[in-house]
Amino acid sequence: MDRFVIRGGNPLVGTVTVSGSKNSALPCMAAAILTEDEIVLENIPQVRDIDTERKLLASMGAVLHIGEGSNSGQTTISCRNLSDPIARYEIVKTMRASSLVLGPLIARTGMARVAMPGGCAIGARPIDLHIKGLEKMGAEIAQEHGYLEARASRLHGANIVFEKITVTGTEDLLMAAVLAEGETVMENCAREPEVTDLAALLTAMGAKIEGAGRSTIRVQGVERLGGARYRINPDRIEAGTLMIAGAITQGDLIISNCATAHLHAIVYAMRRVGAIVDVLGPDSMRVRGTDRFRGADVSTEEYPGFPTDMQAQYMALTTQAKGISRITENIFENRFMHVQELVRMGANIRVEGKTAIVQGPARLSSAAVMCSDLRASASLVLAALVADGETVIDRVYHMDRGYEHIEQKLSSVGAQIQRMGNLFDPGEA
Length: 429
Prior knowledge:
By secondary structure, the protein is α/β, with parallel strands linked by helices. Helix content is 29%, strand content 25%. It has a four-stranded mixed beta sheet. A four-stranded mixed beta sheet has the order 2-15-17-16. It starts with a strand and ends in a 9-residue tail after the last strand.
């Protein structure tokens, strides 16, 4: 398994560019299943989850072409011949987004066999909301041997009310609804930018969608969808992670190619801690750190609230803030696994229920630590950037799932970070 070796103490200075959103790209790639025509997606990040999605689509019979050189962020997908509509466990075991192919497969082929999703062990992400919605639309679904077996002659419109806001559930049923007969109304939908990104692609393909980005979405089903070319939005979580990297190291970073309209909650939380954040325009901002960080509370919420995917990184920042910060996790019940690793580095954190209480500032020191999930990995990298000595971070394949060439980006602005490998294949861990 690869590891990072990081020597802390360097302020990060310069300009760093944000990659395309992994969490937008995955459902947009799944949307290619809905048409026989080619889908061309631009600004696709080179991360492990994207590679897994490509393997998954190829295993079903899709033909994919990955651009080279200056077009390396482009992927062309043709699902003209879906010969094998199965999402096999051996392919999707490391990726939570496997459930996103369920809706489009049923809508396009009338059947699907999808392995129950894997990925980070940060808590339950129940697929029952997907199942209930698809059953309302006429699908027959059974679970056996770790797979969901689904069939439908043709889906029909339905009124679906999500019991709990779910991003992947909203995306999955949205893709199913665009080819269903009649109108589908979905209520209590996720409003994340990733949902609106998917809806924009589907609309470009010929879908009839109203309300994406709001809590109620209406879809008028169509007989078929066509091809489209679409550019994926910048990754708001990578942008937020880089913003904290600039602040925590008392650096001066320009974050370019970011969608600042998607970052309001992160900007607000960082300013409350004392970071200096200047929005330079719709796609760039400047972040500077100070030696006067102060404790500030935050609670994770569905968009447009503070994202759960930034909770661990924010916690790393608050270890350097004077006073107490209370960080409450409202989305996932098992998302404090990074706490003990931060404590190993000298952080003063205790967990009470769904709240982590951080007392700062702490003088962090080098240690051997281990990544437990994607965003926990980022928090350890951020802590290592300000820790005394040389920190070794193991199992960084978790980080590779969602951050494109992160060590190269950080090195380019002054971080002392090096990737070290060994004989083990991280995909087997």
